[in-house]
Amino acid sequence: MSYDTLPLLSAEKIEELLFSRFEDGFLKLSDLPDPYMFKDMQKAADRIVLALKRREKIVLVGDYDVDGVCSTAIMRLFFRELGYDLDWLIPNRFRDGYGFSPSLLSRIADADLIITVDNGISSLEAASECERRGIDLIITDHHIVPKIPPAAYAIVNQKQIDCTFPYDEVCGAQIAWYLCAALKRSLGVDIDMKSMLQIATLAIIADIMPLLHINRAIVKSGLSILQSSDMPFMKAYREYSSKERLRAEDIAFGLAPVINSAGRVEDASIACEYICARNIYDARNYLKRLVECNERRKLLEESITAEAMELAKEDEAIQVIASDSWHEGVIGIVASRVARAFETPAIILTANGEDYKGSGRSFGECNLFDMVSSCSDRLKKFGGHKAAIGLSLEKKDLDSFTQAIRRHAKENCDNRDYIDPDILGELPLSSIDWNLYAILDSFEPYGEKNRKPKFLARDVYIREKRYMSDGRHLKFIARNGDIFIEILKFRLSESEIEKIENSEKIDIIYTVSENIFNDRRTLQLIVEKIL
């Protein structure tokens, strides 16, 4: 891996490179497409309006990740504004598994109308059972549509071939928001849909939607609303976090994991109740439970990651690591940690009865979905995309699967020459000033397809180094010529500690950040990697 070909950058060149990411420019909320550009949106809205007039029993089925929780919350809050008693449930990851399954129907058999949010497009069996029982089913989902879609009354999904909605990459909460916007128009009610964009914003960021086109417009507006929101859940979170400014990364690495933790270690309904809390007292109590869930999640993740790192094989093109005792709710995060540490794709598996159930995360340009597909004859089921997959297999097939996927990875996945595309080029510390920061800040929010830019700095002298959190993190002052700046490095590897201790100067990959402490603003660098 060589960084010698990276260009030397100026502030003007950085601005040019960042602007080139936006083919359609910077869109505004006024550019949001009409709700009825979704196929079946009119049909879905009309059926819900009829159910409201007849006072039918409507049941909402969500999902246990952040997008599913936010989708459920948007619908609940909208129906609350209507004064309608909406029944809802979110499947439990451990009891119910993913999505709208036939087993859930026993709990909602008296429904007249079922609406799914952020799931359902793969629920062929449950849809058929609804049809058999005479229950109308409206599916709202954003995932890939199977060749034979479920037998539903209406399907609102932008990935349908004959759907005219112009953007392919939107999340479940956005579609739930659009459904509510369509209902608002059909019912002629005065409900503030713009305020609900703050909840959709959480989902867009957490579900790693590209922060381009309308997604950027929604998130930019939503972050502004969240900053001063009077919704109890956000007032409670601002108290807890003491954040003076909310950025997309504060959601991605702060609030989103807290919301997500309930579904990972307990039950996602706690997170939905938190977002829908009617007062600050309830919001604080739910947030307290979520923070406790997140602490449990962190401990599990750290413990399992440490064990997985010990079992990993450094010379393999893909890491396949299994245990009979790991917690199912965090293995996807562990896979991400292992993939980044070894710079190879990683699959982490844990026992589920006589099977192994697992999650995989890719690295670099490796197509993990293709790799797993090449070994599908050894799997019970799998799904996902290039960067992330889920799978299950019988325990007896683990060795065969591991050998097959390692062969495929060795032949088709070579990351030796991979350079992170988020590294724009070389930027010495002498070029870092408030003018550069203003340019970088103007392209916020950063996220998928608009990643926070990274830079290379060479021969950075280390001064005043201080280890934190039992040596896992490092803070030091760096010097490059006459320039001094504070630098942070989180989650140090053993090799990075060795480089720091044995060298007076290092090369770093870094991002530029603003630090506000006691009303004083300073620039600081966050190190991604010590070379």
What features would you highlight for this structure?
single chain; 531 residues; alpha/beta; OB fold (Dihydrolipoamide Acetyltransferase, E2P); inorganic pyrophosphatase (n-terminal core); Diaminopimelate Epimerase, Chain A, domain 1; 3 domains; 5-stranded parallel sheet; 5-stranded mixed sheet; 17 helices; globular
Set out the fold topology.
Elements: H1 11-19, H2 41-54, E1 58-61, H3 66-82, E2 87-89, H4 102-105, E3 113-117, H5 124-133, E4 136-140, E5 154-156, H6 172-187, H7 197-206, H8 213-227, H9 232-241, H10 248-265, H11 269-275, H12 280-311, E6 319-323, H13 331-342, E7 346-352, E8 355-361, H14 368-373, E9 381-384, E10 388-394, H15 398-412, E11 423-426, H16 434-441, E12 454-468, E13 473-480, E14 483-489, H17 494-502, E15 505-517, E16 520-530
Parallel strand pairs: 1-2, 1-3, 3-4, 4-5, 6-7, 11-12, 14-16
Antiparallel strand pairs: 7-8, 8-10, 9-10, 12-13, 12-15, 13-14, 15-16
Helix pairs in contact: 1-16, 2-6, 3-6, 3-7, 3-11, 6-7, 7-8, 7-10, 9-12, 10-11, 10-12, 11-12, 12-13
